[in-house]
Specification:
Elements (H helix, E strand, L loop, with lengths): L1 E3 L6 E3 L1 E4 L13 H13 L4 E3 L8 H9 L8 E6 L1 E2 L6 E6 L2 E5 L3 H15 L6 E4 L8 H13 L5 E5 L3 H10 L4 E5 L11 H7 L3 E5 L31 H13 L1 H6 L4 H11 L5 E5 L3 H10 L6 H20 L2
Parallel strand pairs: 3-4, 3-13, 4-5, 5-9, 9-10, 10-11, 11-12, 12-13
Antiparallel strand pairs: 1-2, 6-8, 7-8
Helix pairs in contact: 1-2, 1-10, 3-4, 4-5, 7-11, 9-10
The structure holds NADP nicotinamide-adenine-dinucleotide phosphate.
The site of NADP nicotinamide-adenine-dinucleotide phosphate has 27 residues, from strand 13 and helix 10.
């Protein structure tokens, strides 16, 4: 299943491969060879959309993607981002990584320098989509957008997107030029977008790329009470992963079991198919640690849920996952 990214003319697979965990940071470390296998398996399974960012392991995920797509660049709709930088004190301090303070900063020169650095790490001369990763309250959006539009005019990107943005941010970007996509958290547990950016995107032909579509893996139904999250894995301290919530997800998985069986699918695949069936959700990014996960997620793009299936899944969400959402 392929879909257009906004009005860019660029089309990509509806399921996209996310590479945050491949950077290791906040995921208890990564395994580059397993990551490369996941990227190759995704491409072999028909995925074209690959999402990365400089911040994922301070360049590590981009380098892994660059290695993996060598010789296959034309098969990839490559998305990277800007706006989280660790070489300046400008903007505002956001998070720490490996002893470095990451700043949210979207000044024009920095945006350009970031793209050049990404192109080097990715071993390519252009990306297909360039997204502002987090918004920087210290730089006027007009300045950032002017830089993005210039990079697009130079052929260094084919589409422009924004992430972790408000409706006001989106309006300000749109006032300066064409925005083709937003990238926001969206899954069965995180549906706030339906009342914020989603209607604006639908009204303006802007694609929505959901991130954390599996709620950091929780919605695969495969994380049991014995699972130990290693090192800096952000799930260690996330209340979403409490044993009570794991039990709720298990009950949800049982409830949708017959639908999964009818589609010869796993729970996670039904979750992804449901996400892609939501009005206005154009693409669904799913992280994968290895080739097996990558192929499973890719195949979810082939599942079409009927209206009855969707009603049953919605009923199961309401019955079993409502309390999980409330735990956020
Ligand atoms: N713009 C932003 O600010 C932003 C923020 C977050 C994410 N993103 C993008 O969106 C992508 C997807 O989101 P995400 O990675 O945060 O979360 P996600 O897709 O909800 O979950 C990914 C994790 O779930 C587990 N998993 C995935 N497929 C599985 C399968 N088939 N079976 C069992 N477990 C499976 C893996 O972790 P384990 O194997 O370790 O359990 C994997 O790392 C990211 O990689 C990134 O590219 C963007």
């Amino acid at each position: 299943m392929k879909r257009e990214i906004g009005r860019s003319g660029v089309t990509a697979s509806a399921v996209g491969l996310g590479t945050w965990a491949m950077g290791g940071w906040m995921w208890g470390g990564g395994d580059d060879e397993a990551s490369i296998a996941a990227i190759h398996a995704s491409l072999d399974a028909g995925i074209t959309l690959i999402d990365t960012a400089p911040a994922y392991g301070l360049g590590r995920a981009e380098e892994v993607v660059g290695r993996a797509i060598k010789g296959r660049r034309d098969d990839v709709v490559l998305v990277t981002k800007c706006g989280l930088v660790w070489d300046t004190d400008k903007g505002n301090a956001f998070v720490e990584q490996d002893g470095k303070t990451i700043h949210r900063y979207l000044g024009a020169q920095s945006v350009r320098a970031e793209l050049e650095a990404s192109l080097r790490r990715l071993s390519t001369d252009h990306v297909d989509v360039f997204i502002t990763h987090w918004q920087d309250p210290t730089t006027p959006i007009a300045e950032t957008m002017e830089a993005l539009l210039a990079l697009k005019a130079e052929g260094k990107t084919r589409a422009i997107g924004i992430s972790n943005a408000t409706r006001q941010d989106l309006s300000a970007y749109m006032a300066c030029g064409q925005v083709d996509c937003v990238q926001e958290a969206y899954n069965m547990l995180d549906r706030g977008l339906e009342n914020t950016l989603l209607p604006d995107c639908r009204a303006n032909d802007i694609s929505v790329i959901s991130y954390s579509s599996l709620a950091l893996g929780l919605l695969t139904g495969r994380i049991g009470p014995d699972r130990v999250f290693e090192g800096d894995d952000l799930r260690r301290t996330n209340p979403r992963f409490s044993s009570a919530n794991l039990a709720r997800v298990t009950a949800f998985a049982s409830a949708i079991g017959p639908i999964a069986a009818a589609h010869q699918a796993d729970v996670g695949q039904i979750v992804i198919a449901w996400t892609l069936a939501q009005p206005g959700i154009t693409f669904s990014l799913c992280g994968a640690r290895n080739d097996k996960q990558a192929v499973e997620n890719a195949h979810a793009g082939r599942i079409t849920l009927s209206r009855e299936d969707l009603s049953s899944v919605d009923a199961a969400i309401a019955s079993h996952l409502g309390p999980v959402a409330g735990a956020e």
